[in-house]
Amino acid sequence: MTMMEPRKHGDASDGTVGGRQSRFEGSMKVTGTATYALEYPFENLAYAVLIQSTIPAGRVLKVDISDALAMPGVLLVLTPEDDLGLKLGADWGGNKPAEGPYYPLPREVQFNGQSIAAVVAESREQATEAAGLVRVTYEESKYVANLNDPNAGEGKLMDALSSAWGDAKAALAASPVRIEAEYSTPREYHVAMEPHGLTAKWDGEQLTIWEPSQWSHGMARMYSEWFDMPYENVRIISPFIGGGFGSKGQPLAYGAVAVAAARKLGRPVKLAVTRPQNFTSYGGRAGTKQQIALGATEDGILQAIVHRGASETSVYADWPEQTGAATSILYKVENFSSQHRIVPVNSVTPGALRGPGKNPSAYGIECAIEELAYKLGMDPLELRLKNYADHDYQSGKPWSTRQLREALTKGAEAFGWSRRSHAPRSMRDGKTLIGWGIGCGTFPVIRAPSEAMIRILSSGKVEVISGAIDMGQGTYTILAQSAAEVFGIPVDQVEVHLGDSRLPGSAIAGGSMLAGSIMGAVHKAAVAARDELIGLALSDANSPFRDTGANTLNFVEGRIAAPRGEAPSLTLAELMFALKREEIEVRRNTLPEGASAQEQVQAWTTMAKVQGPTMGDYSMHSWCAHFAEVRVDEDFGTVRVSRMVSAFDCGRLYNPRLVESQWRGGIIMGIGQALLEEGLVDMRNGRTVNNNVGDYLVPTNSDIPDLQVISVGVPDHNASALGGKGVGEVGIVGVAPAIANAVFHATGKRIRDLPITLEKLL
Ligand code: MCN
Ligand code: MOS
């Protein structure tokens, strides 16, 4: 077990892979020198403001813009009347739909809060004022507000997301002990600190967009398709992002509006999506419902799992929030059946939010497993260990690595689980009920190709160059560590340049796939650059190493030396000087040898080359076990999470300090999900009521206790070149059920619909 105790900062080993280097860009962020997308200054800038629909479904009959146009400073009003001349773009997989126009400001209203018009003016204040004067006449039609609307149908069965083996129904019926329950989760939102928005600027045929992005290359591709222009002519600049959590992976309608307005006006246009507009400009996590039935023997051997889940989607696109995603792989079970349906409602299409699918799925199965434990009168830890899956029962494949048993046992030890008394309401501190609960989590290892460039400069600096994104996860830092290690130099001798679609191609900062992918590419490029330098140093007439007879060189502690000290050692700068080289530049990718230029672009701009967790001989996932303690006020029903211990298997950690921060960030979001977060929909008009950070509650510091995190992972070289598995999302998965289970243990009340608010406990 590696206990993540805070350690003295500044050890030399911190700058290599596995070290606890603190954030490369941290001081820039805290001193305000990290420039975010909407902070760049422009000459002649115009400001666009969105107008969103106020009905849930229908048609825009008329938009009266005369008063708005008469306002000072107003330059342009765009409405569904304007054909912006856009074309449909391909989906994430790069699949083209039938040819057709794309209307970012459509006449058909499909949800309340849909962008239907925009005003552009000399200032944001003028645009906002004028937007208030635009009068829209609608023809309203029938709508479905959300998953709980009586008019919501039963939806569409997603065959690809359903799975079955054995005979689950028969095995359930034959099981001596059974539980059956329904769990639900509400709409949840990303609420990143940095709201969405962009500045778009045309220079002739060249388009540059400053926009927070999780995927510079994928976004550039989509804009190029909408505006029917060569991919090379679009550039996305996004070096710093104030959080994305899944919401910034693709361009959205407002982006098309700003770019089209900039083209029409021949001026740069900035569009800042307001905080309320953020709630409907892209989708948060879909509301879900799931029924779970478990059957077991009297001594707690799981016999069957039957799972039926549903999630809401929009009326115009399918987004499944796959409620069965974790159900199928957490436990050993010979009889299994899971189905998932999607139910169209009048909402913006939901999207990926940290741990999509796995998150609500773990909420269901991890609550259900504890319900079974109480029915059996068995310790929930023992029940989990008893039904430990020795391989992946769904794919039939062996795990590449799965330290979930270690996570459960080490986590339990650190938490003090053995001191638990089993009966609900049996642990208290005066009037405060104390409860303990467990929730396991998982997230797949998703693999994708990436590309990177290394430049060794005459100054002795090494540059790492990639279009990859750092939205706070730590990409800058781990890439600096990787290059520093290969060249044996201090980490501050490395400069990392990221966040620009003109730079070498990269996997998305999403699906917890970026670190594994881009570390592989940077390591490969750095080793190739070092080899090139060694080659020159051993052969160049100007090199002091030429006549040493050595066949390689060592790079240690900032110096380059022949293995047996055959010549004096040099720094990188001294060697570059001796070789009379300005720079050495090497570019490498992790695609199969000989991939064509076209395949390369496809790899960085679509998901076509992305591999799921069971593509190959193994089933590969990150794992975790959360142990939560809650304190519930017996009279008021208020719940506080007073302590959490979480143990993780994410393979090798490139930087434990950053990983701990990722895990804690996920856990904090999980605490919010358990106790606070709920997108409220007005059933009378489909409107998101609490569309602001005053009413949509996320945790603050005072809601968060000490979070102890423990790594139990071992390097997994099937998962990635350097042995790491995904880190960014697994932390949120399993937190909400751990808390719900702890609340049950404290109070004897089982809350099956999130969030667990006090009125549900009274
Ligand atoms: N890491 C590591 N060792 C590993 C894997 C990762 O040290 N074996 C560390 C690195 O610091 C790396 C980070 O963890 O930068 C995340 O790596 P990875 O799990 O590969 O995830 P991605 O880089 O693909 O980041 C995306 C992921 C996702 S999908 C969401 S959602 C999320 C998350 O990261 N959104 C975030 N973490 C976030 N963190 C911040 N601050 N802001 C967000 O919006
Ligand atoms: Mo993460 S939800 O895959 O960006």
UniProtKB/TrEMBL annotation:
Keyword Chaperone listed? The answer is no
One GO MF annotation is: oxidoreductase activity
What's the superkingdom here?
Bacteria
Q: Which residues form the Aldehyde oxidase/xanthine dehydrogenase a/b hammerhead domain?
A: 31-142
Query: What segments bear the compositional bias annotation Basic and acidic residues?
Result: 1-12
Q: Which Pfam family is one of those matched by this entry?
A: MoCoBD_1
Return the annotated region ranges for Disordered: 1-24
Keyword terms of this UniProt record: Molybdenum, Oxidoreductase
Q: What is this protein called?
A: Xanthine dehydrogenase YagR molybdenum-binding subunit
